[in-house]
Amino acid sequence: MNRLCDLLSIQYPLIQGGMIWCSGWELASAVSNAGGLGTIGSGSMYPEVLEEHVIKCKKATDKPFAVNLPLLYPQIDQHLETIVKHRVPVVITSAGSPKKYTSFFKSHGIKVLHVVSSSAFALKSQEAGVDAVIAEGFEAGGHNGREETTTLCLIPQVAAAVDIPVVAAGGIGSGAAAYASLALGAEGFQCGSVFIPTPESSAHQNFKDAIIAAKEGSTKLTLHEIAPVRLLNNPFYQEVVAAYNEGANVEELKSLLGRGRAKRGMFEGDLQQGELEVGQISAQLDKITSASEVVARIMREYNELATSTFQCF
Ligand code: NDP
Ligand code: NDP
Questions:
Q1: Closest ligand 2 atom, residue 42 Cα
Q2: Which fold has domain 3-202+285-299?
Q3: Phi, psi of 140 (to 5 degrees)
Q4: The pTM is what?
């Protein structure tokens, strides 16, 4: 009996996180077919691209899947229309207040999960009527909470604060981490970075290879003044460090970031000047494997731990 599996009609309490430029229909459908919940990352998709990916995803799987919707997306009304028109079963909202659209989605029979980085935001999400919260800690790639709370500290606090199911995220790429997150009070776990070096991810091959090469300390959290983001330490990151050392203000940092950095790095494979968003788990990844193998490995490791007897003290 697992409330998240029941809520989402999935076999395993494993959600593939929506990642801009990296998670299109191919990855989402592969994860859903493997027994988890696959997610299309819509933040990087123009409205017609999202519609194409939703149509392809529905053709590739008859299992539930999700669309991740950053609430700051500029053409959000068109994304909402696509989600409702094509009866997307689950929406994962992030980067904005869950008050605005939760009741709209629920009135269309769509399950809503919201990404939070603190207990206070988790409580607000529960009050807004979301079905579950995804609590994402400091280890996660891409945009990160201002509180900088690690997953190990965040999950028990969020689980104590709300009654709805909590999904742990940030630093989860193994069955052991998944097991730990459930021990901390989560009822499911979300994995993002571990799904980038898969053939099904739409990330550029250069980015996948850079993740395989990443070591401990290869990712950094920066640009706190704009929106904290965890990324690979590359020449672009070094330019950001140099700008900080020269006392750059927010406007100067924004102009250094410019437009479309994430696309350039993650989708076009510019490892020098692109923004390469990935989590600390990248240090543990050493080969490209299919998305279904990733799901099977994590669940095998999880089940081995769950059926083994830990030493009692
Ligand atoms: P492709 O567009 O390269 O196509 C992959 C497969 O989909 C091919 O087999 C192709 O068929 C088929 N296909 C392509 N376009 C269409 C269409 N309009 N209708 C039906 N089938 C089609 O890759 P994706 O499907 O992965 O991506 C589709 C679009 O989304 C591309 O423009 C891509 O750049 C973009 N994209 C955006 C992402 C983002 O985060 N913003 C992430 C991933 C992709 P055939 O063999 O006949 O060409
Ligand atoms: P930028 O402002 O640097 O660039 C916008 C990028 O988004 C471009 O690469 C553009 O593609 C693409 N894009 C897709 N749809 C649209 C649209 N309707 N209007 C304008 N651009 C669009 O943003 P980032 O790359 O830093 O972020 C991209 C998106 O990621 C954001 O729009 C937001 O939705 C999402 N995001 C999510 C966060 C979260 O979930 N926490 C946090 C921050 C961003 P092209 O280059 O082909 O024009």
A1: 34
A2: TIM Barrel (3.20.20)
A3: -65, 150
A4: 0.92
